[in-house]
Design a protein that fits this description.
Layout lengths: L1 H22 L11 E5 L8 E4 L5 E5 L5 E9 L2 E4 L11 E3 L5 E3 L7 E7 L6 E6 L1
Parallel strand pairs: 1-3, 2-9
Antiparallel strand pairs: 3-7, 4-5, 4-6, 4-8, 8-9
Bound molecules: copper (II) ion.
């Protein structure tokens, strides 16, 4: 009898998890929604984020300003677009509204990558993939 209860409990847990995943709207069954990285009105709220290989980040705009994100970085006040080998392509990903969020495709190769906002000088994000 105890065994049956455990089995029932596990089945209901699986059901809850399945429903939760189904409603998240993820593109792939194995992908998660990504590590949240927030942006305020002029910058990323953290300058770097560390994630595990194969996972993604989810950029979230916390301000009612436009951010346009691409591969690359600001160096000494100059925008330097650059798609680093192994980085997912991010090409003028635009945010315009508060609360708007966009996932970045999974980082499948370990390394250090850079994203920047072409609107805001020195708005840089380093993504460390381990
Ligand atoms: Cu910006």
């Amino acid at each position: 009898m105890k065994k049956l209860l455990i089995v029932l409990a596990m089945l209901s847990l699986v059901t809850v998890l399945t429903v939760a995943c189904g409603s998240s709207g993820g593109a792939g069954s194995s992908s998660n929604s990504g590590t949240a990285v927030h942006m305020n009105s002029t910058n990323f709220t953290e300058s770097s984020v560390t994630i595990s290989k194969g996972s993604s980040i989810n950029l979230i705009n916390d301000a009612a300003v436009t951010h346009i994100i691409s591969n690359g970085s600001w160096v000494n006040g100059s925008a330097r677009p650059a798609v680093e080998p192994g980085a997912p392509m991010v090409n003028n990903l635009q945010f315009t509204a508060t609360g708007e969020s966009h996932p970045i495709a999974p980082f499948n190769t370990a390394g250090t990558y850079h994203l920047y906002c072409s609107v805001h000088q020195n708005m840089n994000l380093t993504v460390i993939v381990q």
